[in-house]
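User: Show me a protein chain along with its predicted structure.
Assistant: Here is one chain, sequence first, then structure tokens.
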Amino acid sequence: MMLLFFSLTPDVYMLENTNVSIESFVSVNKGSYDENWQDVTFSLDFLSFRPDGYVVTGDMGGLFSSSLCLGNNYSSPTFTVYDNCTRNSFHITALGGLYLSPAPSRYGIARFRVSLLDNGGSILGGRESYVQQSPLTINVLPQPKIYSVAPRIGSFLGGVVITIRGKFFGSFYRNIQHSFSIRSVFVGSSICDPVLYTSDSEIHCLVASNITSGDISVEIETSAAKLINSSSEPRLTGSLSTENGFRQVVYVVAGMANSDNPHESANGFLGIGGFAGDPQSTFEFCPIILARKVNAVAVYNNEIYAGGTFQDVAVQEFSNLSSSKFVVNYIFRYNGDKLQTVGSGTNGEVHILLEFEGALLVGGSFSESYSNKGIKSSLGSLVLWNKSTESFSSLPGIPSAIANGIILAAASSGQILFVGGRFNVPDTVSNSFHGVAKYDSIQKKWFALGGGLKQGEVMSIVLQKSKDYRCSDASDAKLDCLGDSGLVFAGGSFRMTGTFEEVTGVAKWENGSWLGMGGVLNGITYALAYVEDWLFVGGNFSRINLGYKTLYVENIAMWKDNIWYPIPGGGSVSGSVFSLLYIQNCMYVGGSFGKVCGSNQEPDLVQNKSCDSEIDPARHTLVNGVARFCWQNRTRENSSLPLFFAWEPVKLKTVGVGRIQVRTLAAFLPSSSGVLET
């Protein structure tokens, strides 16, 4: 006589926040003809629960959304409710169907004993009763959890290694004795590869270039998932929204901003813009509050460094930063996730930041810098910050004239550094340093450039990057660089060279001398940008005296081969230009202005017309402190400029902001391509 028996799969695997419905989970045989008329009942007895795969507890810890239906007879396939049990309750029907629904966001490993009973009776010679028992383990697998990513911002060129922190990247699945691997990591719609698994709570991957958005997703592949009964392929996936994820940035913008509220004072700001997937003519403020303006920004070691006139930095409450307020002393760094001090800062304003020789050059109007709180590590207004050692150091052999001066400008090419500012104290070793100097890091020597630039300050320096700026005669006892093949352009408030040639506002260093550039500006130059053979000049001026005529240009102009030009189309701006940045075939112009002007008609070069007073809608565009003009199909082989640049505003996405003044712009370029060894 065949006895009543059943068989089932002893391990069930399911995903967190999913339901299981298996109509033929248990195979039941009621036995021979003298038994199969009887009703059968499945009973579930709880044995143990491991919520994290390790620790055993005495209760189910709320794993299931409703209580177990123990010892209830589900003999009908229509799922009629018996004894207050429902289809979503954890139960096995008399026909062998398994139904369970874990509570939301609950996971763990629960063990049960399944018993099968008939209702007894000896009619037709059957047994009075029969009980069979079998173990059953329910494995509710947690979805990966992503808590943070660092850094949260990086260059649009890619090459940044990001660290993703969270939970359940692997150990839970290993603990249930199933293999696992990171199937994929995505930043937006782009794969982040290669991937390095370091622990259950941390993985790393290399971000590609030009991703479309910044949400983060991690997918785990495990052999356990293949056992789940599902109509679609199961996915062990964790995600982090774009708002809290990773974003690629084209440029950094900073300065000071007024609130829409007239009773609030102006604050400094730091912003990022040109996000992949968004129009590159937009930017937004970082969640950082600065009481005073930002003068300089730079990207170093894939972090944003900002320097200025501020001492304290506050963080808006909705951000993910670790603290609400920092004392930074004129300089800080930010990676989109965390704001940090740079040592203990300086004792005065920071005006320039520039990556040089693997370190960050910091210059300004300070006399001391501090690697640690209260401990001076270097003296002078021009120092190097080294990320690997977290310390400041002085440049070797820096002349006292420069160390005791104010640094307002810097540019580099390879191992050669040029600095400018306000320093004119005679040096006892070399020629007098007036406003500008040159440093060779190979020779570790400083050089005066002729007699320098006098009667004002040097506020901007730009180089011909393709030229060699090494001194042609390193043995020159005067340490005076003569005969260099590269051009150096300087802008500022100076009025003459050391040889008493008038060079108001802008000059070039060529063949060992400072020279005029074919015209005299009637104001100050704050910003310079060199694009192939063209020099773009921005500042606070309205005309250039060419000797034989006056060229009316308002705060921005172009120069080539000693000839001055207006921006094509009569381009001008209604206020001072403090910064110029050329990137991706666009020139970004930052300053203190609310209007840009120009048209596709040739401008009048004789009569002055103010952009601020322009009312013709065809000839002006309203902006807020920053705008750009772009040209297409331009390569190194085809460097000619078009006859007309179309202005477009660079729009601020942050709301509640009044007028802004852009003091500095910087391209977000990777310090070096990331390397991830798996």
